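Take the subject:
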Amino acid sequence: MKIRITNDGNEQDIADVFEMLKAYNLSKLETSDVDPVGVYYDDESGRKLAGLTGETFGNWLCIKYLVVDESLRGQGIGSKLLKAAEEEAKKRGCKYSFVDTFSFQAPAFYVKHGYKEVFALKEYPITGARYYYTKEL
């Protein structure tokens, strides 16, 4: 046995570790479907201008990404995407939502929409912060 340290981000190494962890987790977690959810805002030509991606898992909506083109920010598009994702999650039986965001991204946006901070990583990665929020749906 040997310990190997790398700095190459080898995709196969990462996939191997992920599969090992996934197998263990699935042996311990309750059975629950993981279903992707996507909400998008496209222009007339089909060009994506904003979107929210994530998944529903058991009781939870887990938001992975939410972005609105800078030229459209402040017009309520992000709020509409978030509300649509939350409504879809409720239809799927979710009771809660989870998201994380950096200090330069959207902490105030999520708080405005009823999200509560559960913890924060300060000085992340050096001078910023990363916030973790949940909300009862």
About this structure: The helical segments are 11-28, 77-91, 107-112. The first helix runs from residue 11 to 28.
